[in-house]
Amino acid sequence: MPTIPAEIHGQRYLSLATFRKSGVAVYTPVWFVEDNGKLYFMTNSKLGKCKRIRNNPQANIAPCTIRGKITGPEFPATVRVLPPEEHARVRQAIHRKYWLARIPFLWRNTDTYLEITPA
Q1: 33 lies in a domain?
Q2: Residue 50 belongs to a domain
Q3: Cβ of 10: how many Cβ atoms within 10 Å?
Q4: Which residue among 27, 32, 43, 119 is least packed, with the fewest CB closer than 10 Å?
Q5: Element spanning 53, H or E
Q6: The domain spanning residue 113 has which CATH number?
Q7: What are 39-93's pLDDT values in tens digits?
Q8: Domain count, the chain
Q9: Does a structural domain hold residue 4?
């Protein structure tokens, strides 16, 4: 069973590095929740990180600040787009951790939920 690195466990923000076709990493801070040794986050399917993940599921993760400044070591991971039947479970977990995520107006374009499996 995969385990979440101790440096990431309990953090508020996660830096997700996805890779362009050229191999260049693009770093994005995301809200995330932990469950069963995996990490989950939500996004809009039209955003660049989602497109990059569809092309290459390999990523790097690291603890970071709200602005994306990495505060610890990076770890390799694999990202998977979740099927719609798993969305509600992840959405509820994110709502429990982040009260701001409960405001529908702010997240009306969120239509994709993803699972990060640390390597």
Answers
A1: yes
A2: yes
A3: 9
A4: 119
A5: helix 48-55
A6: 2.30.110.10
A7: 999 999 999 999 999 999 999 999 999 999 999 999 999 999 999 999 999 989 9
A8: 1
A9: no
pTM of the shown model? 0.91
> C-alpha distances in angstroms, 68 versus 8, 30, 95?
14, 8, 21
Q: Which residue has the tokens 């099927």?
A: 83
Asked whether residue 1 is assigned to any structural domain, the reply reads no
Q: What's the rounded Cα separation, in Å, for the pair 32 and 30?
A: 6
Task: Give the range of the structural domain holding residue 111, as residue numbers without chain letter.
Answer: 13-118
Q: Are 41 and 30 in contact (CB under 8 A)?
A: yes
More confident residue, 100 or 94: 94
Residue type, 37: G
Task: Quickly count helices (H) and strands (E) in the chain.
Answer: 2, 7
Residue 64 tokens read as 């970071």
